[in-house]
Amino acid sequence: MSPATSGPLSGIVVADFSRVLAGPYCTMLLADLGADVIKVEGPAGDDTRHWVPPVRDGVGTYFLAVNRNKRSIVLDLADAGDAEVAHALSARADVFIHNFKPGGLAKFGLDYDAVAARNADVIYCEISGFGSAEGASLPGYDLLVQAMSGLMSLTGDPAGPPYRSGISVFDIMTGLHSAIGILAALHHRDLTGEGQRVETNLLSTALSTMVNQVSAYIAGGVVPHRMGNAHLSLFPYEPLATGDGELIVAAGNDGQFRRLCAALGAPELAGDERFTTVGRRNENREELRPLLLDRLATRSAREWFDVLTEAGVPCGPINDVRGGVELAGELGLEPVVSPEGVPSVRNPVRLSATPTRYDLAPPALDAHGDEVRAWLGLPAPHRTEGPHT
């Protein structure tokens, strides 16, 4: 359909019927790896095109964040002609992905059974909020899942209200899990020729993503609670005040704690029976904290960062987003890429033989509609105006 792309997924066609975040993030990762992603949008476009501010050239930066390297076609699934295009696309795609409610595409002939009947070896990925059983009718919004999974009960000051994460963490993690499932299914297809259905949901992702906190309950019988910036099992592993501001100190094992004490000029703390092991430091954190703060108050956060880093103690400043991007640049990570002049964050995966690509900016609405129809052998629709913006 288009000039050959590079990357380990070159030649894989993805019919992307997803919108907002979890699905588009997944398909952008696949596109970065060389897949040819065809983004199917309704006449109004993906909701995030209109989630402003912030905005760049009239498009929400939310949309720009997760839609590079894709082609856009507008299809109204309730229209017979557009439904024919959708069916033809589903018959040609290697991967079909959507995040409609479970069963929501059946009336359009785009459920798993219908698509697999046209395309027996398709990898069909469906993303939902709460699975396809009893939770099928529940709306899948990240904020709801942050609340219902228990994450918000862990976030915030112990004496204050629960807080959401600053990002849609479970949408992003579900997108990652979806990409992993799709890649596993593609490998299985390479070995056997067999396609399959891949299901992910935000609640299952949430419980998996909360790792030690959920394990504390299911394996230890402990229901975790809000601890502010403190860690349930480690100390010091939190922001600590210095002479002019806070510094994250993350001494996660006994060796790091000994190095911390030596760098602070208080080696005797490492030999104190109350603090010699991770467990003892955790039990006696309220006795240890003022002793550390007393030493840290003698220098600035920047000075302690240099001293502790030199001593091999993990630590770091609390940056804003600009500071995080600038730090990545200073460390040689080249965090920003600009396909066709539109800046976005570099894919974090680096492959030595088949590097990620950054060929296409996030597409204008229906920018590739005629191209996709021509590839499918279908005529362009009659229209009185050009592609949407």
Tell me the number of strands.
13
Query: What is the N-to-C order of secondary-structure elements (H for helix, E for strand)?
Result: EHEEEHEHEHEHHHEHHEEHHHHHEHEEH
What does the main sheet amount to? 6 strands, parallel
Count of alpha and pi helical runs: 16
| Strand percentage | 5-15%
Shape summary = elongated
Q: Compute the CA-based radius of gyration.
A: 25 Å
Helices and strands, with pairings:
Layout: E1 13-17, H1 22-32, E2 36-41, E3 55-56, E4 59-60, H2 61-65, E5 70-74, H3 80-92, E6 95-98, H4 112-118, E7 123-128, H5 142-149, H6 151-154, H7 169-192, E8 196-201, H8 202-209, H9 211-218, E9 237-241, E10 246-250, H10 254-263, H11 268-271, H12 278-283, H13 285-296, H14 301-310, E11 315-316, H15 321-330, E12 336-337, E13 344-345, H16 369-376
Helix pairs in contact: 1-7, 5-8, 7-8
Descriptive report:
With 389 residues, this protein is an alpha/beta fold. The chain is 38% helix and 13% strand. The strands form 4 sheets. A 6-stranded parallel beta sheet has the order 5-2-1-6-7-8, with helices on both faces. A 3-stranded antiparallel beta sheet has the order 9-10-11, covered by helices on one side. Helix 1 (22-32) packs across helix 7 (169-192), helix 5 (142-149) crosses helix 8 and helix 7 (169-192) crosses helix 8. The two termini are 22 Å apart.
